[in-house]
């Protein structure tokens, strides 16, 4: 095409834009950057993957020109990839997984699913995870209130064997923690002596009798003297208050 060749584009209205086209390219120049078609004698000609003009052969998913995709099964494989967290942190759990196609090699890079055999593709499934054994340990509760405030009492607490699985604590039989000593469940408390009342000796009390003649009476007392009964008349004056 000559350099002075022009083409006109008509737009709405009275304006006309004139566009200068490029010179004719060399034969063999690709028509598009991402295809195999080439320009020949100013026309875009179809070229197959076998580099023959007019060929309709295409490269299959395995990268084989004119292939049907069956040759790449030995070079690619399905791999289960987790898409969720494991249900347990130990003792064997499960997580959801999906199949992805990977290439055989050191890097095992992910490729398009079409490279792998679609008939052998695993469905979304569960895959095992964290199969290592869980670690058991003794769990101790808070001490209860002491049975006495002083003088010696006792208090108790709960102690049980358990395994911790993430945020979950699972209670087990005591023999599961037999490898470690079980903490005590009871102990003494408030052993200090209790306060008590103490008394001193009675003090001597002296009674001062105030005698009044008008407020007295007499009492007759019998007394024994030298095993001989003598009747003695004794008058004891008692203060009548």
Word description of this protein:
With 241 residues, the protein is mostly beta strands. It folds into four domains: 18-72, no CATH class; 76-129, no CATH class; 136-189, Single Sheet (TSP-1 type 1 repeat), CATH 2.20.100; 196-239. 0% of the residues lie in helices and 30% in strands. It is built from no helices and 15 strands. It has strands spanning 6-10, 16-20, 29-30, 38-40, 43-45, 76-82, 93-103, 125-129, 136-140, 153-156, 159-165, 168-172, 186-189, 223-225, 228-230. The protein has a three-stranded antiparallel beta sheet with strand order 3-4-5, with no helix packed on it. Strands 6-7-8 form a three-stranded antiparallel beta sheet, with no helix packed on it. Strands 9-11-12 form a three-stranded antiparallel beta sheet, with no helix packed on it. A hairpin with a 2-residue loop joins strand 14 (223-225) and strand 15 (228-230). The N and C termini lie far apart (158 Å). The model is unreliable at 1-11 and 209-241 (pLDDT under 50).
Helix-strand category: mainly beta
What Rg is obtained from the alpha carbons, in whole angstroms? 57 Å
**Overall tally of domains:** 4
Q: Helix coverage percent of residues?
A: under 10%
Order of helices and strands: EEEEEEEEEEEEEEE
Anisotropy-based shape: rod-shaped
Average pLDDT level: 75
What portion of residues belong to β-strands? Answer: 25-35%
How many strands? 15
Q: Report, as a whole number of angstroms, the end-to-end distance.
A: 158 Å
What's the number of helices? 0
What strand line-up does the widest sheet have? 3-4-5
The low-pLDDT segments are 1-11, 209-241
Largest sheet: 3 strands, antiparallel
